[in-house]
Specification:
Layout: E1 20-24, H1 38-54, H2 61-74, E2 81-83, H3 85-96, E3 98-101, E4 104-109, E5 112-118, H4 123-126, E6 134-138, E7 141-142, H5 148-155, E8 162-169, E9 174-181, E10 183-186, E11 190-196, E12 199-204, H6 211-225, E13 231-235, H7 244-254, E14 260-265, E15 273-276, H8 279-282, E16 302-306, H9 313-323, E17 328-331, E18 339-345, E19 351-360, E20 376-377, H10 412-430, H11 447-457
Parallel strand pairs: 1-18, 12-13, 13-16, 16-17, 17-20
Antiparallel strand pairs: 2-19, 3-10, 4-5, 5-6, 6-7, 6-8, 8-9, 11-12, 14-15, 14-19, 18-19
Protein name: S41 family peptidase
GO molecular function: endopeptidase activity; serine-type peptidase activity
Organism: Aquariibacter lacus
Length: about 475
């Protein structure tokens, strides 16, 4: 299963999961700690004792403590999380891009799971699953009524175990079972192709452990196909973020050497840093994965596509390229996740992901709770926006931290537009056909991509007539 799950629904995929994450697996005292509040700790002990003795049924002591830790951390902000054994394993799978499953990227359509694309070489690919196939049952469980996450969990499992998927193939109007043996899957976070002669498209769907290596190899292959590429589209739509080094490296691929990509600032010394377009700041294995890329990539005309689902690491790339005037940012205002999470390992199987800093673009902008404002605004389709206003952004989240650079009042006009868009979508859902899903990224029906190509060719671009900048909002505190 793809670590990035595409949805043609209300919420952009993975916007919350896209942590700009630095991996630091150690436990250490940081600075001078103030004395512990003994009175409050005594209250905690008293509550623990009362729950244990007076609750209607026996409770597990370890679970109580874990829940207390989780509650303490979740009260900080939407991105700080305590990982228990299970969630820590899932988090590591997300950053490495490796997990055990069948090997498909999925979305939802008419209440069932739709195969967006089988991952090349995966068990699903070898079994003959195709883009557009609908999965109606997983083993004996009907998919109708399951959430996307629930369907994912049922298809994942242990290596060499079997799962039976019931497939409905619309193009052939038939339903049939497919038995697939699960195995370790390495997701592809980078897709690339020549969309037209002379024009390249590269999509980064998440910044994972091998994203930079995959990006370099795919871009090198594009230049083998056409050494004189005239225009380049970097597609970061619905990219929820990921590893910091990946964002710095992808930015460095297009920028002059040694220019600033991003800086971070927080309470502890380790959180104050500046990352530049130099191998020492993005190479995790000692070798520069970008060294074989052609020099032409530094100057090829560039468009970067973003939307409300572009978060965290993808916003770092867009912000760096925008500040250095390296390309044109096109699309919608991004998610607005301008904070850094660091993972501290607590035990062998548990860890704390905690917000340690805000990050800033090369010009010193904090995009926290605001996002990157595009240079050219685009709608999702030629008919206008379908789901754009309904997608959750950082400023919508409870307890989100502020940018630290001054906040604006809540955008009342946007709230009215959002309510109107929701009403329109509800009316469409009541019709027989229902709301039309958005075309797959990278296809001829992909309206924003076609406008990006027009920009590169010097042709007229159909600019959005309705989208405007969304101001940052004060956090809603409970």
């Amino acid at each position: 299963m793809g670590a990035t799950l595409k949805m043609a629904g209300f919420v952009a995929v993975g916007a919350l999961a896209g942590a700009l994450t630095t991996m630091q697996f150690q436990v250490a005292a940081r600075g001078q700690l103030s004395p512990l509040p003994l009175e409050e700790l005594q209250q905690l002990a008293s509550v623990f004792s009362l729950v244990k003795s007076d609750y209607v049924e026996p409770v597990d002591e370890k679970k109580l403590i874990t829940d207390a830790i989780s509650g303490m951390v979740s009260g900080l902000d939407p991105h700080s999380v305590f990982f228990d054994k299970k969630s820590f394993k899932e988090f590591r799978e997300g950053t490495t891009g490796k997990f055990v499953g069948v090997g498909i990227e999925i979305g939802m359509e008419d209440g069932v799971v739709k195969v967006v694309t089988p991952i090349e070489g995966s068990p699903a690919f070898r079994a003959g699953l195709k883009s557009g196939d609908l999965i109606t049952k997983i083993d004996e469980t009907a998919v109708k009524g399951l959430s996307l996450d629930q369907a994912v969990k049922k298809m994942r499992g242990e290596p060499n175990t079997k799962v039976v998927l019931t497939i409905f193939r619309k193009t052939e109007s038939k339903t049939f079972p497919v038995t697939i043996v699960r195995e370790e899957i390495r997701t592809q976070s980078v897709r690339a192709k020549m969309v037209e002669p002379g024009y390249a498209w590269v999509r980064v769907s998440q910044f994972q452990d091998r994203t930079v290596e995959d990006f370099a190899s795919k871009v090198a292959e594009l230049y083998k196909q056409d050494p004189a590429i005239k225009g380049f589209v970097l597609d970061l739509r619905n990219d929820p973020g990921g590893l910091l080094e990946g964002a710095v490296a992808i930015s460095a691929a297009f920028l002059p050497r040694d220019v600033t990509v991003v800086s971070t600032n927080g309470q502890i010394a380790d959180s104050k840093a500046t990352y530049k377009a130099t191998p020492g700041d993005y190479s995790r294995r000692g070798d520069d994965p970008l060294k074989k890329l052609p020099a032409a990539l530094k100057s090829v005309p560039l468009v970067v596509l973003v939307n409300e689902g572009s978060a965290s690491a993808s916003e770092i790339v867009a912000g760096a390229l925008q500040d250095h005037k390296r390309g044109t940012i096109m699309g919608s205002q991004t998610f607005g996740k301008g904070s850094v999470q660091t993972v501290r390992q607590i035990t062998q199987d548990t860890a704390l992901k905690i917000t340690t800093a805000r990050y800033y673009t090369p010009s010193g902008r904090s995009i926290q709770a605001k996002g990157i404002v595009p240079d050219v605004w685009l709608d999702e389709t030629a008919e206008g926006n379908v789901f754009s206003l309904l997608r959750t952004r950082e400023a919508d989240l409870e307890k989100h931290i502020t940018s630290g650079q001054g906040e604006e009042a809540k955008d009342a006009e946007r709230e009215k537009a959002r309510e109107a868009a929701l009403k329109k979508l509800e009316e469409a859902a009541k019709s027989k056909e229902g709301p039309k899903p958005l075309p797959e990224f990278g296809t001829a029906e992909d309206f924003p991509l076609q406008q990006a190509l027009n920009r590169l060719k010097g042709k007229p671009v159909v600019v959005s007539k309705t989208q405007t900048e969304r101001k940052a909002e004060e956090p809603k505190l409970n």
